[in-house]
């Protein structure tokens, strides 16, 4: 059954069918605005935006902490020249001139002497900023905190805001783009509610939904129509899971199943 010019006021509750939705254009309710964010075509995009943004913020926070530590070492420490004694398992003198793969952050053992004359051997340091210069038997400039030379040292020779904002600058546009797509998809759902064609369908099957663990994916078939395409929608379990053959009013734009929404969830 397709409701083109059907007046909802002639609805007869005695015929066992649910009440049809109002005629278009329909007013949008707060319930409908909230529901539009929960449609599968919208959820996937705002979830993606949220995940990317959380990753960007978490990675930025960790980098801020590391940068703050290195800034403290640079500010309070000494700039010295250290000898690269060992990289991973390659050490002097048998593996002199050994160079690790450039994409790795290798573990190095360094020998160095502070300005006060104290000498340190085989001090571990994971190289980050100068890994491309790392060669067994060569020297490397580093900063060392004289108060704790074995624990507080860094191969970073300077600090800039991009050291900790790089990932945020890289990922924020991707999160924003996913959020924009979510907003566009949501606007399409609300447009379907306001202007979509009302059609009566029956429930054919219900299944659990991985994306919506508290909802059900419902397969519908149109009533009184030659169109035999299966229409899939998601309905919350809290609102009552439909039974097989239960009639349900849906709305679609241009008879496209991907635009289908359940009318009663927006009313």
Record the SSE blueprint.
Blueprint: E1 2-3, H1 30-36, H2 40-76, E2 78-87, E3 90-91, E4 107-113, E5 119-126, E6 139-144, E7 153-154, H3 162-195, E8 197-208, E9 215-222, E10 231-236, E11 247-252, E12 261-262
Antiparallel strand pairs: 1-8, 2-3, 2-4, 2-6, 4-5, 6-7, 8-9, 8-11, 9-10, 11-12
Helix pairs in contact: 2-3
Kindly describe this structure.
With 267 residues, the protein is α+β, with helices and mostly antiparallel strands. 29% of the residues lie in helices and 27% in strands. The chain is built from three helices and twelve strands. It has helices spanning 30-36, 40-76, 162-195; strands spanning 2-3, 78-87, 90-91, 107-113, 119-126, 139-144, 153-154, 197-208, 215-222, 231-236, 247-252, 261-262. Strands 1, 8, 9, 10, 11 and 12 form a six-stranded antiparallel β-sheet that branches. Strands 2, 3, 4, 5, 6 and 7 form a six-stranded antiparallel β-sheet that branches. Strand 9 and strand 10 form a beta hairpin. Helix 2 (40-76) packs antiparallel against helix 3 (162-195). The longest helix has 37 residues, at 40-76. The radius of gyration is 32 Å and the shape is rod-shaped. The chain starts with a strand and ends in a 5-residue tail after the last strand. 20% of the residues are buried.
